[in-house]
Amino acid sequence: MIEMMNQQVSIMKKFNNSYSKQKWLVEALSEKLDEEEQSAKQKLQELIVASKRTKKVN
Question: Is-above-0.85 flag for pTM?
């Protein structure tokens, strides 16, 4: 009986570790995507400003 309980605990630990790793990975990817989105927005804004300046010169 104790052996069976130890096996169940082992399975639960593996699941928890796996879930934690997956959660960490999702959070890390989400942060990276947020950073890339902000960078893309900033570059787009810079292009819009540069485009407006070019139109004023021409």
Answer: no
